[in-house]
Structures are given as structure tokens and as C-alpha cells.
Design goal:
Blueprint lengths: L1 E5 L5 H10 L3 E6 L5 H6 L1 H24 L10 H25 L3 E11 L2 E6 L4 E5 L2 E4 L3 E3 L12 E2 L1 H4 L8 E5 L3 H12 L3 E5 L11 H13 L3 E3 L3 E7 L4 E7 L2 E7 L1 E4 L3 E3 L13 E2 L2 E2 L12 E3 L10 H15 L12 E4 L4 E6 L2 H6 L4 E7 L4 H6 L5 E7 L5 E8 L2 H13 L4 H5 L10 H10 L9
Parallel strand pairs: 1-2, 1-6, 2-3, 6-19, 8-15, 9-10, 9-15, 10-11
Antiparallel strand pairs: 3-4, 4-5, 7-16, 12-13, 13-14, 17-18, 20-21, 21-24, 22-23, 23-24
Helix pairs in contact: 1-8, 3-4, 3-6
The structure holds flavin-adenine dinucleotide and 1,4-dihydronicotinamide adenine dinucleotide.
Length: about 450
């Protein structure tokens, strides 16, 4: 079985490895960088910057309280940039080794369809070659969505790609779009001393998360000096002598901001153009590739996974889809349980969620019970000096099956795995209550939150 994977991101490279494990002859075509957006300009480099930002803020604001005497310290931006490059290249190197050890043929070049059975690859080294296949998996990912507003293309208006590698820390930054990317970069740069303003069209930042949980982040960002304007839309950007002027419309009227840099983080769009998809009759919805639940397009031997489907744009989802697509091709039908998809935002406090929010569960007709436990009552959070957070369960009132878990606080992005497993196993709240959690851990708050569904949290006053 000859499988060609187009795109070497977490969708594509995982699909390629799984296909090789199952005995396929695999070619991976990648036009820019193995590891895709995630390893090169996404998940990994952002978290390197966030890690330093968090340590720096902790030392700045809490060292005295933690009993650490710190004389003089500062951010070494150039050093941090080189650490970011080292981490990225180490991980990309690791992926290359895995591809090699699985005997996957890697072609560095851009692929497009000649017909339903052949691809053309414009190799980076210059040559054009034709590649035959039995199956193709399209995993071409996504790119930043550029707002079609006047001045959207001015110098100094950047996307996440450039925001990761600025030559120096800007004095001021206006973030258009307070979603995941906007909030993570607001955390990075406000920690580094930049005056950050977030402009968000919706009533809340990180609006995909449970509002009560996302509010913990909004409050923390404001406390660290970030100005947040919700219900606000950007109309135009102009160049001025001092930098950039951003004109917005708020509920109260027009408002302008003068800043050094503007970050556009208003979503991402699938990369599906110039690939001959229309020519071979692949069904698209706008720029998204349409697939069935096994990630087959309407041309049944051609599959699409990850960000290019334009659904949930997360690395772990792209990888999971890649595995299911390959197993389908190799006759080992498996399926994906999207309800277990964890969402994680690496700010301070971290936010994490799995399953339905309270509003979603009510909209679906559930009689909902919730259980909440604030982290100020959790010993480990107090030890860490990070009590700004909450655990919130959403539970089916009739069967007590867990429908969702939402968290703000330290290690939330790690602890959400317990919620994902609970949903996978269709666990009831009683099954969390009767699971012993280690002490002292932030994880105990998951235990207490479960008790709180029955109004029986031990460490909350009656
Ligand atoms: P990609 O990773 O985008 O890979 C697609 C690859 O295909 C690219 O390398 C591209 O060069 C290649 N390609 C495209 N067209 C062709 C062609 N015609 N021929 C050959 N190759 C081609 N997700 C998380 O889960 N956690 C995070 O913390 C996180 N942080 C993020 C931070 C930022 C700043 C950004 C931008 C994204 C982040 N994401 C995060 C999202 C995550 O990066 C994506 O969901 C993930 O990379 C999608 O994987 P993919 O394989 O579908 O596509
Ligand atoms: P997003 O969809 O999370 O947020 C975009 C925000 O911009 C929304 O809140 C939207 O209301 C707002 N917006 C849109 N148009 C606007 C306008 N004209 N004016 C003001 N606000 C406007 O998209 P984002 O942050 O760009 O991230 C893209 C994807 O990358 C996400 O879907 C996410 O899946 C992925 N990602 C994941 C991360 C993680 O898992 N930690 C980190 C970063 C990105």
C-alpha cells in the first residue's frame, strides 16, 4: 500500500509514522519545515516564551514571599530567542529521527494534484517530480487569518509567526482578538514589560471557554496591567510618526490607540489553495476540506486531517485524526471520540477544559448539576502561591455522568487529562469521589470539586 502524506505537522508526521507501523510504504512531502506550525511557529515556541515569562513574573512579584533573595535579574531576550530555537530544533530533529527509523521517505517540496492518482512535487532543490499513490492524506494545516481592514498589511502589524521572533521586546502592543493566541501573547509580552492592550469583538476573552473559568484569566491579565476592551471592533490601522494608530468602535463610541506593534490574532484559515483540489473534484466548504468521520474526502482514497479541515485546530486533534485516517486505510477501522478533546491555554492562571460547558449542556436539554471548588482552599495551590483558580464540573443531573470539566489554575493543562479520561470512560461523579487523590496536590481540587456536586466538599465551610 503506497500512502503519501502531504504536510509534516503533528497531523501529517503522526499519520506517516502510524502508516509505517502498519506496514505501508510511506512518503511524506513537506514544503517548509518538518514539525509544521506546531513545532516551528506554534505550540512549542510559544510555550518556551511562556515558561520564561511565568518564571520571570514569579521572581518579580513573589520572590520575597517565597523566601528568595534576588538582587538583580532581567530578561535576556536574545538568550531566550536562542533557547527557543534550540528547543524547536531538538524536537524537529527528534521527529526526523522517528521518520527515518520508520523508513519513511521524506521529500522536501510542495505537492499538488495532477489527477486522482498522481501528485506533482516541486522539490525545494529545484526539480519537479511525479509521485504515484494508492492513498493520500492531506495534512496541509492552516495559516493566520488576515483581517481585511485598511492598514491590516502595514509594517508593524504582525501575526503570531513574527510575534515569536521580534528583534526586541516592544514598548507597546495592541492585540486584535482575545482568543487563545491573543491571550498567550498578551501573557508573554505583559510579563516582559510591554504595555499590552487586547481588543476583542465578543463580550469575553477566550470565549470558547466556560465564562466563569475564563474570567479568572481576564481578572489576572487586568491585574498585571493588560487593558482589555471587549465588545470592541477594529476598523482601521494607520501609520503615525510614533508608530501605529488603531481605530476601534466600542459600545461607548469610537476609540483610538497609539502603539508600537499590532498583533493580529483573529483566527486561522486552512491551507488548501494551489493544490489542484478543485481540479480533482475534492469537496470544499469555503477553504475547508470536507470529510466524513473517518476523514475521507468525497474522493474516497484521498483523506484530510487536522487544521486543513478547519474544525478544531489543535495539534493533538490533528494527530488523533491522522491515526484514525491511517487505521481506516489499513483496514483497522477505528474512530475518534471528540468529546474527550482537551483544550488548554498556557497563561497564568492556566485554563483547561474538556466536554460541555454548563450553557452547552443546558442547551442540549440536560438537567445540569455543577460542582465548584476554589483553589484558595487547596493546600498545594497555597504552597505554590497560586490560588487564583477554580475547578468546575458539569454533570448530568439525572445519571450524574460527567459532561464537562473546566479549570483555571496551576497545572490545569496537565490535570485536564483526568477529565478527558473520565469522559472517555463515561464516569459518574461518584467514581471521581471514590478515587483517592494524592496529598498535597492541585489534583485534590478535582476530588473536592466532585464532592462539591453533592455539596459535600470537605475543605469548604458549610
Ligand atoms: P500544521 O502543523 O500547520 O502542518 C502543516 C504542514 O503542511 C506545514 O508544515 C506546511 O508547510 C505543510 N504544507 C502545506 N501545504 C503543503 C503542500 N502543498 N505541500 C507540502 N507541504 C505542505 N495547538 C495545540 O494543541 N496546543 C498549543 O499549545 C498550540 N499552540 C499554538 C500556538 C500558536 C502561535 C499557533 C499558531 C498554533 C498553536 N496550536 C496549538 C495549533 C497547532 O499548531 C495546530 O493545530 C497544528 O499544528 C495543526 O497540525 P496540522 O498537522 O494539521 O498542520
Ligand atoms: P481564536 O478563534 O481562538 O480567537 C480569535 C478571537 O478573535 C476571537 O475571540 C474572536 O472573537 C476575535 N475576533 C475576530 N475578529 C475580530 C475583530 N475584527 N476585532 C476584534 N476581535 C476579533 O483564534 P486564534 O487565537 O487566532 O487561534 C487560532 C487557533 O490556534 C485556535 O483555534 C486554537 O485552536 C489554536 N491555538 C491553540 C492554542 C492552545 O491550544 N493553547 C494556542 C494558540 C493557538
Amino acid at each position: 500500500m503506497k500512502i503519501v502524506v502531504i504536510g509534516g505537522g503533528p497531523g501529517g508526521y503522526v499519520a506517516a509514522i502510524r502508516a509505517a507501523q502498519l506496514g505501508a510504504e510511506v512518503t511524506l512531502v513537506e514544503k517548509k519545515y518538518i514539525g509544521g506550525t506546531c513545532l516551528n511557529v506554534g505550540c512549542i515556541p510559544t510555550k518556551v516564551l511562556l515558561h520564561t515569562a511565568e518564571l520571570f513574573t514569579t521572581l518579580q512579584k513573589e520572590s520575597e514571599d517565597l523566601g528568595i533573595k534576588v538582587e538583580k535579574f532581567d530578561i535576556d531576550w536574545q538568550r531566550l530567542q536562542s533557547r527557543k530555537k534550540t528547543v524547536v530544533s531538538q524536537l524537529v530533529g527528534g521527529v526526523n529521527t522517528l521518520l527515518q527509523s520508520n523508513k519513511i521517505k521524506v521529500m522536501m517540496g510542495e505537492a499538488s494534484f495532477l489527477n486522482r492518482n498522481q501528485l506533482e512535487v516541486q522539490l525545494l532543490e529545484g526539480k519537479k517530480i511525479t509521485v504515484d499513490f494508492d492513498h493520500v492524506i492531506i495534512a496541509t494545516g492552516s495559516k493566520p487569518f488576515i483581517l481585511p481592514i485598511p492598514g491590516g498589511d502595514l509594517g508593524g502589524v504582525i501575526t503570531s509567526d513574527e510575534a515569536l521572533s521580534l528583534e526586541e521586546i516592544p514598548k507597546s502592543l495592541l492585540v486584535i482578538g482575545g482568543g487563545v493566541i491573543g491571550s498567550e501573547f498578551a501573557s508573554v509580552y505583559s510579563s516582559m514589560g510591554t504595555k499590552v492592550t487586547i481588543v476583542e469583538a465578543l463580550p469575553n476573552i477566550v470565549a470558547t471557554m466556560d465564562k466563569e473559568v475564563a474570567d479568572y484569566l481576564a481578572v489576572a491579565l487586568k491585574a498585571s496591567g493588560v487593558d482589555i476592551y471587549t465588545n470592541t471592533k477594529v476598523e482601521a490601522i494607520e501609520r503615525t510618526q510614533r508608530g501605529l494608530k488603531v481605530n476601534t468602535v466600542t459600545k461607548e463610541g469610537n476609540k483610538s490607540f497609539e502603539v508600537e506593534k499590532v498583533l493580529l490574532s483573529v483566527g486561522r484559515k486552512p491551507v488548501t489553495e494551489n493544490m489542484g483540489l478543485e481540479k480533482i473534484g475534492i469537496k470544499l466548504n469555503g477553504d475547508k476540506i470536507v470529510t466524513n468521520k473517518r476523514f475521507q474526502t468525497n474522493v474516497s482514497h484521498i483523506y484530510a486531517i487536522g487544521d486543513c479541515r478547519g474544525e478544531v485546530m489543535l495539534a493533538h486533534v490533528a494527530s488523533a485524526e491522522g491515526v484514525v485516517a491511517v487505521e481506516g486505510i489499513m483496514g483497522k477501522a477505528s474512530k475518534i471520540d471528540f468529546k474527550t478533546t482537551p483544550y488548554a491555554v498556557y497563561t497564568k492562571p492556566e485554563l483547561a477544559a474538556v466536554g460541555m460547558t454548563e450553557e452547552q449542556a443546558k442547551e442540549q436539554g440536560y438537567e445540569v448539576k455543577t460542582g465548584k471548588f476554589p483553589l484558595y482552599a487547596n493546600g498545594k495551590s497555597l504552597i505554590m502561591g497560586e490560588t487564583n483558580g477554580i475547578v468546575k464540573y458539569v454533570v448530568d443531573g439525572k445519571t450524574e455522568e460527567i459532561l464537562g470539566l473546566h479549570m483555571a489554575g496551576p497545572r490545569a493543562t496537565e490535570l485536564i487529562a483526568e477529565g478527558a479520561l473520565a469522559l472517555r470512560l463515561e464516569a459518574t461523579i461518584e467514581e471521581i469521589i471514590t478515587t483517592i487523590h494524592a496529598h498535597p496536590t492541585v489534583g485534590e481540587s478535582l476530588h473536592e470539586g466532585a464532592h462539591a456536586v453533592h455539596h459535600s466538599a470537605i475543605h469548604l465551610p458549610k
